[in-house]
Amino acid sequence: MTDHNDTITREKFMAELWRYKRGSVTRRHFLGVTGLGTATAVLGAAMPGLMPRPAWSQANIGDRVILATWPNYHEPTNFEAFTEATGAAVQVNVFGSNEEMLAKLQAGGSGWDVFVPTNYTITTYVDEGLIEPIDVSRLPNYDASAFDARFASPGTVNDTLYAVSKNWGTTGYAINTAKNGDVTPTTWKEFWDMTMTNFSGRTMVHDYQLTTIGNALKYFGYSFNSVDANELADAEKLLLDAKPHLFAINSDYQPSMRSGDAWMTMCWTGDGKQLNTDIPEIKYVLGKEGGELWSDFYAIPKGAPHMDAAYALIDFLLTPENNAKEALFHGYPVADARTNALLPAELLNDPIIYPAADLLSALEFGAAATLTDPNRAELLARFKSA
Amino acid sequence: MQPRVKTWLFLMPAGLWFLTMLVLPLVVVFIFSFGERGAAGGYVPAFTLDQYANLPARWAAFRNTLTLAPIGTVVCLLIAYPLAYFLALRTTPKWRTLLLILVIVPFWTSILIRSYAWIFILGGRGLPTLISALGLGDVQLINTPFAVLVGIVYGYLPLMVFPIFVSLERLDKRLLEASSDLGCPPWRSFLNVTLPLSMPGVATGCMLVFILLMGEFLIPAILGGGKVFFVGNALVDLFLQSRNWAYGSAVAVTLVAIMLVTVTAYMRFTRRWAGGRDDVSLM
To answer: Is A340 helix (H, G, I), strand (E, B) or coil?
Structure first.
């Protein structure tokens, strides 16, 4: 437990606890934020009314902005700087899956101003009327031409811009190679085979249909996004065979990897980077068969209560200087060339963050169908309850 | 007329609360359970029994809950009774207060945080290290049904201790003296006097623990590593992951129905067991 993400102050912890008790955040959020110390969420200020607004602040954007995002995904000092500059405190809700975000917005009354959807969910948000179109004129620091279209284009649906690119990344797995004779595997086949043999009782998979089912599909060489009944049946059999050998089904895997209880886990880029930085024998692997390539976005939900603050926050975080700080903190790649120009070369050359082209080309973007397909959801439920 | 109006006025806040926070949500859940899942999740009005027909798909969750909840209740009882007995009958008043405070103190911290502490105790660097250092072999404790049971017993023990303690403390000590004077050895006094008179506390404690355990989802999620799946966990997933509100509602209605049946049966049973005495109240 050595990295910089591990600290959460007593005050923040209690604040999160109260939010959890009030029901304004979910269990997953609370676990994500406090989760054995992998905490990054920040309450800009617990009591916005007590925060003096700087006299030079021109536009009145209100005293708060509420952000729904992912664990370990923001530089806390950026939020402090935003609050200092605008007077609006940033309240963070952290989520464990896109499904959960969608569920909250479908239920209504989320109260969010900004949320961070992943590429494959945006069309569903548009179809369901849950997302505001982005007015680019209110984002002076956003420059569409600076973004890699491969990662930014899912934000545009039916020629309307609904979301602006935050980060992109991959889903691979992290393995403690010290437990495998210093050998680093290279495929998803090895991931599942080792889980059922020499890594029995030491592997974690995500509590998330997209990646857990998707990476089981890769064992057979099927598409990560398959909704084909026969292919899903194969994946289900593999998952059920592997289940007795799993250490846990949990998307909060850093604590167990750090403590040594788990030796291998499905893993996102930034977590892989954070683990590798602190414990070099933990390597990040992209399966040769493929897997997930993803990009995350900033978007504004329909009826956001603090619309001005939402635009201000997105604009602030996409300002290259601030975005570079974000990237240095969380280790996820950015699609914005202006930001990358500010990042140190060793980060840009890091094979975890920017994988080799041949590994990248095998990856697939998640497909919208997986989000709404009831069979995949039920498959995961059967897997968990088996 | 006047007092009646007053009574109604005083009852209004509680009544409104009961209606809006309990009755209405239950009605909504009941109606939803006959609906269908929307294409992108949520609820679409319909009248179908499909959701109930699909209940066997959550059989494992019901099985886990219906096994671990009674086991957890019984283990709680076995640990709590001697403790409560000791507290009520074998301590001086000064020590009693201190020990009672020790039983209450854990309640000052959220069960969530206390469960997290068990992750470290049961995790690889905790008890298993000690066990293997003692040469008793390698065991995995965390993320097993055993870990969930430990968490359950730990979390719910005070709820069992207090009702039993109260019933034992109110015990008329003269009855024990009388029993002794009439030639009963202590163990017979216990079986014939103390135990029957403490049954109301036992019944209350078991009821409290069992009902809360049936809805438990936090401890299995934290100490079961996502591998020990209760009905509570199934509900969380159905509403937050697969967004199948109709099916989730059917599972919830079924859980409520099971609770009503078991709790009613339990109350009948304890009434009869206690000889139909009026002083055996459950709450």
So the answer is: helix
DSSP state of A207: S
Instruction: Give CA–CA dist B117/B123, Å, rounded.
Output: 10
Residue A353's identity, in one-letter code, is: I
Chain B positions touching A367 (Cβ under 8 A) are none
* Nearest CB to A103; choose among B41, B116, B227: B41
**Contact yes or no for B40 and A127 at CB 8 A:** yes
CB A163 within 8 A of CB A131: yes
Task: Name every chain B residue with its beta carbon within 8 A of the beta carbon of A209.
Answer: 241-242
Name all domains of chain B by residue range, CATH numbers in brackets. 58-273 (1.10.3720.10)
| A250–chain B nearest CA distance, Å | 6
Q: Rg (Cα) of chain B, in Å, rounded?
A: 23
Q: Do B57 and A381 touch (CB under 8 A)?
A: yes
> Locate tokens 């289900």: which residue?
A236
Architecture of the structural domain at A4-168+295-347: 3-Layer(aba) Sandwich (3.40)
Task: Please state the φ and ψ torsions of residue A286, each to the nearest 5 degrees.
Answer: -105, 120
Contact with chain A for residue B56, Cβ under 8 A:
no
Chain A touched by B244 (CB under 8 Å): yes
Interface of A with B (CB under 8 A): 17, 20-21, 26-28, 30-31, 34, 36, 97, 99-100, 102-104, 106, 124, 127-128, 201, 207, 209, 243, 246-250, 255-256, 259-261, 371-372, 374, 377-378, 380-382, 384-386
- Say whether residue B218 is in contact with chain A using an 8 A CB cutoff: yes
CA–CA gap between residue A102 and residue B241 (Å, rounded): 9
ipTM score over 0.95, yes or no: no
Show the tokens assigned to B26: 């239950």
Helix (H) or strand (E) holding B235: helix B231-240
The tens digit of pLDDT for each residue in A321-373 reads 999 999 999 999 999 999 999 999 999 999 999 998 889 999 999 999 998 88
Grouping H, G, I as helix, E, B as strand and the rest as coil, residue B281 is coil
Q: Residue A222, by phi and psi: left (phi above 0), alpha (psi -120 to 50) or beta?
A: beta
CA distance A362 to chain B (A): 28
Using the predicted structure, report yes or no on whether residue A12 has a pLDDT greater than 90.
no
Domains of chain A by residue range: 4-168+295-347, 169-293+355-385
A169-293+355-385 homologous superfamily: Periplasmic binding protein-like II (3.40.190.10)
- Pick the closest to residue A165 from A177, A179, A150, A180 (CA basis): A150
Residue A95's closest CA among A73, A123, A120, A122? A73
pTM: 0.83
A222, A173 contact by CB (below 8 A): no
